[in-house]
# Entry
Amino acid sequence: MSIKAIIFDLDGVITDTAEFHYQSWQRMADEEGLDFSREKNEQLRGVSRRRSLEIILDGQELPEEEMQRLMDKKNGYYQEKLKQMTTEDMLPGAEELILEVKNRNLKTAVASASRNARTVISALEIGDLFDTISDGHSVENPKPAPDLFLHTAEKLNVEPEECAVLEDAEAGIDAALAADMFAVGIGPAERVGHGDLVFASTADVKLDVILEEAD
Ligand code: B16
Ligand code: MG
# Structure
């Protein structure tokens, strides 16, 4: 089926907030005496805040109140860092790609696992470029469940098979495939090689190739 909409993941595709997330989790973990490292942080890419904490806790179970306190602490540090974000923080090629999609009269959307997505989008001043924005508040089941992408297609008024998703995370590619969408991986094959198509970075994405391959 031909593509009518391009759905962009936010962190890792349009901008790179991974370092901010990492520093905020590390600060929380250090203060709380939890084991965490850059290597472990790689497993957190694209997964929800709660799932990230579960990965850090590595099987250790905590009461819900304590889970909430640790998530809130990390999020406070992350939101402090987001205050430094400006329009300069777009990943190379991202704005050009979104504009190209719009020029082709395709619909555009952001579908991010982040509950801070709207703050990030407004710091980047790109809100007007999208027909709709779905974020960590939009659905209950986070990626790798297909829910966020299906919700986005519904808001765009297109069929799932008419959507191509640009994703940098393993969980995001899983979610796009589960939603029956054309999944485009951004990053190394070890992470997103199970996508229908893979580009090394946002700057390398070729819209023509996506539209041809998905057809
Ligand atoms: P928050 P994406 C994801 O955004 C991030 O990649 C992931 O590292 C983060 O844990 C998740 O959002 C939740 O973020 O704590 O701000 O709600 O890649 O789906 O745009
Ligand atoms: Mg991402």
Summary: The mean pLDDT is 96.
